[in-house]
Amino acid sequence: MSRGLKIGGHLDRYVGRLYFASYATAFMVMIGLFLILDMASNLDDYLRTWKDGGTAPIGLVVRYYLLNIPFVFLQVGPFVTLVAGLYTGSRLLKHSEVTAALGAGVGTHRLLAPVFLGSVACGALMFGLRELASTPLGRQRDAAKYVLEHERYDEVYNELWLRDLNQNLVHIGEFRPLAGTPPAPEIRALQTTPLPTNTEHTTIIEADGARYETRNGVTAWWLQNGWVRDVLQNVDKQKVVDRLQGFEFTPGLVLAANRATENPTELSYREARELSRRDPDDRRYRMLMQYDFAFPLSNVVLLCIGLPYLMRRSRGKPIEGVIAGSVLCIFYFATDFVMKNLGLQGELDPYLAAWLPIVAFGSLGIASYVTMDS
Question: Is the pLDDT confidence value at 62 over 50?
Fold first, then answer.
């Protein structure tokens, strides 16, 4: 009978609704728990009186926590998927619906198909959310957090380094995402230095400052007291320049380079790829590119590990299966954490650091899923 079971039929819709309700509940509980823990640690600091006598607006605090929700989800999404799947399976076991399905010829694998389909959708959502939300929402979240932590609205990032498309070094003394009137990205103390091995690009550019804006139809970094000289010529042969040329980078790339230092796992695949293209010797970026693909798959891996332990307890106490599956998943997160940090430190091959937890625990999960009572 399971072969003739209509895809998307009444049974699939019933299990799908049950999983969706479980996911919504698990999402609110997990996200709420993380936000409460963060508030317990930082809210007093965010609301304290500033040195100049002012205080952070309540609306800014609320805005920060709302903007932080997508990034909390990107950290705990697979665990939300696991909890929702285990709760769905427990409900089916509690009301003897698994036994009824087996008696009607519907195998456990077919019964739980909507749950695994949902986990695939959650993985795709995580990847898409990171790509779409990392830059716009992350920028707004970081700006709000800066005000709350530094007790000022003038956002400044100091001592930043990045590379241009020719891998030449760019040093930024200070970077202000919005400064002046009208507001525009601004740099103070800019210096570009070509690599010693780059014989095609031998100019050094220095400037007291630069603004990224459009002048005469050209959008570029417009320099303040800018000088350019050729490192192969005499130092006295310098000339004044008003626009940065030959060292291409955008304000967004500067912020991405800063985020790569402070919160590297929040980089999107596109940001990590662009940074890696400019600095191919930095193994962190290659690891992050792989990790952006690998980590969303843990939604499926955790279900493959946890659900079989639950379903084997159909004649016993489901809670024992939930505990056993959860313990294995904790080991997965611990392994993922260790591998990720080793990869970010450059002590492990980027591919191995990103994919080892998925391959190892995924193999265990597939074996458990295939041998699950059906």
Answer: yes
